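Reopening this one. Same input as before:
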Amino acid sequence: MINKNGWCNVINTVFKATVRSVLIGYLIVLLLIPIGSIYFKGFSLGWEPFWQEVTGPLAWKSILLTIKLSVVSTIIQAIVGTIIAYVLVRYTFRGKSILNSMVDLPFSLPTSVAGLMFLTLLGPSSPLGVWLDHAGIKLLYNQTAIVIGLVFVTFPFVIRTVQPLLEQIDPAEEQASFTLGASRFYSFCRIVFPAVLPGILAGSMLAFSRSLAEFGAISLISGNLPGKTMVASVYIYGETQNYNPEGAAAISLVLLTLSLLILWIINVLTRGKGRLA
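Same output, byte for byte:
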């Protein structure tokens, strides 16, 4: 006969097994099966058709363009995001709480709305757009527009991964450095930067991975010119509209593999360093 403690152990074991089964089922249904279907569809016709789809002139140019502009936007985010995070943590000023809450706006704003926002702001009928046009500056329907869109949608990543690490650094360490005659820049490079570097790397790679998949804003402001401003996500959409699911799956597979590789690298970099966000 099972005593009270025995029943508690049985219930606890059943509960843990149930929670574990639900979690595994959730991962299988919402992650593993969709990911597996992309790999299956991409290679459904064999290796040679897959390679032909990926190395096609327009497809390959769209992949290279996506990677190139994602790298540019990621570098911008690594620098600007670190500076903004430092200001939000170390300085007190009027409107700081509003600015801090606005950082997460790109997370909650649909990317198509972001694209429309830039069209409205920089379009030829807007005052700013007219002024830029007269100055000979074009910020729409070119690669610059793509970088602007990518910087906007990935804005929070570096900031939110660096902030917690900055908050863990005792300001007294920097103050001691100032007391000994070190400049603010030198103190930042020797004390702050090494401590926040894992956050910068992790946030930058998350921003890069997000940039690879961006569609909504880019499709509205890039012009979608094949071989010039057509990124991979727009190319994939075009292939689905042209009834070529295998071609769309092949390019999707390349982006998916890159994203999975980036997530693995992030996991390696942050292992043993605690949560960054």
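So the earlier flakiness isn't reproducible anymore. For the record, Residues 4-42 form the longest helix (39 residues).
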